User: Fold this.
Amino acid sequence: MGSNKMRAIGQDGFGGPEVLRVVDVDRPQPGISEVLVRVHATAVNPTDLWHRTTGGLLGTTVRLGWDVSGVVEETGLGVTWLRPGDEVFGMPRLPEAAGTYADFVTSPARHLARKPARLSHVEAAGLGLAGLTAWQAVVDTADVQPGQRVLIHAAAGGVGHLAVQIAKSRGAHVIGTASPAKHDLLRDLGADEVIDYTAVKFDDAATDLDAVIDPIGGEYGPRSLSTLRPGGILVSLASPAEAYLADEARQQGRRAGFLLVQPDHAGLRSLADLVDKGELRVVVDTVLPLEEVARAHELVATGRSAGKVVLTVAP
Assistant:
């Protein structure tokens, strides 16, 4: 492979993990206000599976991956705060294609932040998309305050385990739903109460809540609304179809909204600050090489991972 070529993950049409394959493509060049990053690690998120199967927001040209942790290789015109050799992490371009399942990726410089020194590239790769989703849900949307009661569904998952820690850092009383095998992890991350959703109805076990963070959707949305106190908020992360809950919530004197995560330099820096203070860590369930991307997608599809599934790219 020449120096102007790189490995990336392409796909043969839409379908299961078997459509994913390693391809050789031209190495991208950073545009104005962009940087070129040598990817050390990237993470697999549920949105990747949706785009692989349907094309999602990307249409027919799907280049998967939005998480990145790596090293700046080159800077484009106008970038002053990053230099080649800087270690960075982030979530470029969403809802447009980023293509971080590759040896190199370009990113608007402000869609990245400096990687916290106490995180490895593998850990930092799991922080961008899931961390920003959790931050924008807990802080920007729900505005969680000290002493408030917050319920987080799928609390040991990629977004959930970070949302638990962010809510705790803001002084909330945090309740999480998870299968029994993950309860010890959640208590270790700071959850005050853990609900075994396989044995107990969460809407019986958790009431008088100020906020619910829901990555699951479906029946969980209406059931979660019933657990909120007047004025409480449900933040749905599952699908745009959940936007209908806003009307239902209004009629009940509550609030609800569907959140689509956005690139956010300030949010990334806030996440990094929590890491630096020892208040946020990234749990990594499985690490696989880029070539085993199909296996990584299979693992994420089970919904059983605790924390993140990460692909290593650079040696």
Q: What stands out?
A: The radius of gyration is 19 Å. The mean pLDDT is 96. The chain has ten helices and 15 strands. The first helix runs from residue 46 to 54.
